[in-house]
């Protein structure tokens, strides 16, 4: 499907169905690759069409747009124009870097649950007990700062093994609830 056909398909569904959950599998299929690249924590989440209010002071009208439902049931708008834009080199590298450390992040979460057994681990911020589904691993020093520091000193910025080793030695992580991590901007590109 061409970019023009994709845009027409997405626009037709949005305008014909209005506000509500997206039920057409083709529309879901068209949006997933963008989410996997730009917002991996939202990939596979329910999609909706929502009303985005305009800004009269800036001459902008409101419009119907696609949105992804987060784990705490908030809707995050997504741009169909951004969907059709090819990923930048930096976005592709960022995705590769996150994939390279995914095992470390999962391992930390697993060890936290094993260490606290038979009780549940608690959030590093609130002290509240966390279930497996609600717990997220958060970088104490935000991911984007670690990434930028490594990129500034890396001899080969495409060496994901070197990045993973550097991350293992320099990153400090902790468990937070999804809501806490989301409130501080985590689980996205700049956690």
Summarize the structure.
This protein is α+β, with helices and mostly antiparallel strands. It folds into 2 domains: 82 residues, Nuclear Transport Factor 2, Chain: A; 95 residues, no CATH class. The protein has 7 helices and 6 strands.
Walkthrough of the structure:
The protein is α+β, with helices and mostly antiparallel strands. It has 2 domains: about 5-85, Nuclear Transport Factor 2, Chain: A (Roll); about 90-185, no CATH class. Helices cover about 45% and strands about 15% of the residues. The protein has 7 helices and 6 strands, in the order H-E-H-E-E-E-H-H-E-H-H-E-H. The chain has helices spanning about 5-15, 25-40, 80-85, 90-115, 145-155, 160-170, 180-185, and strands at about 20, 45-50, 65-70, 75-80, 135-140, 175. Strands 1-2-3-4 form a 4-stranded antiparallel sheet. A two-stranded antiparallel ribbon has the order 5-6. Strand 3 (about 65-70) and strand 4 form a beta hairpin. Helix 4 packs across helix 6. The radius of gyration is 19 Å and the shape is globular. The protein starts with a helix and ends in an 8-residue tail after the last helix. The model has no long low-confidence stretch (mean pLDDT about 85).
């Amino acid at each position: 499907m061409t970019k023009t056909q994709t845009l027409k398909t997405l626009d037709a569904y949005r305008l014909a169905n209005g506000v509500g959950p997206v039920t057409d599998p083709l529309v879901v299929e068209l949006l997933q690759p963008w989410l996997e690249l730009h917002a991996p924590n939202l990939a596979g989440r329910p999609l909706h069409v929502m009303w985005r209010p305009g800004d009269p002071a800036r001459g902008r009208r409101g419009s119907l747009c696609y949105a992804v439902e987060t784990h705490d049931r908030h809707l995050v708008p997504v741009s169909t124009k951004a969907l059709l834009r090819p990923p930048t080199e930096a976005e592709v590298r960022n995705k590769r870097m996150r994939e390279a450390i995914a095992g470390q992040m999962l391992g930390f979460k697993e060890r936290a649950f094993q260490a606290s057994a038979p009780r549940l681990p608690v959030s590093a911020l609130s002290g509240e007990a966390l279930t497996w589904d609600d717990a997220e691993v958060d970088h104490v020093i935000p991911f984007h700062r670690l990434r930028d520091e490594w990129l500034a000193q890396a001899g080969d910025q495409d060496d994901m093994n070197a990045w993973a080793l550097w991350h293992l030695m320099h990153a400090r992580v902790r468990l937070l609830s999804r809501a806490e991590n989301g409130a501080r901007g985590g689980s996205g590109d700049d956690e």
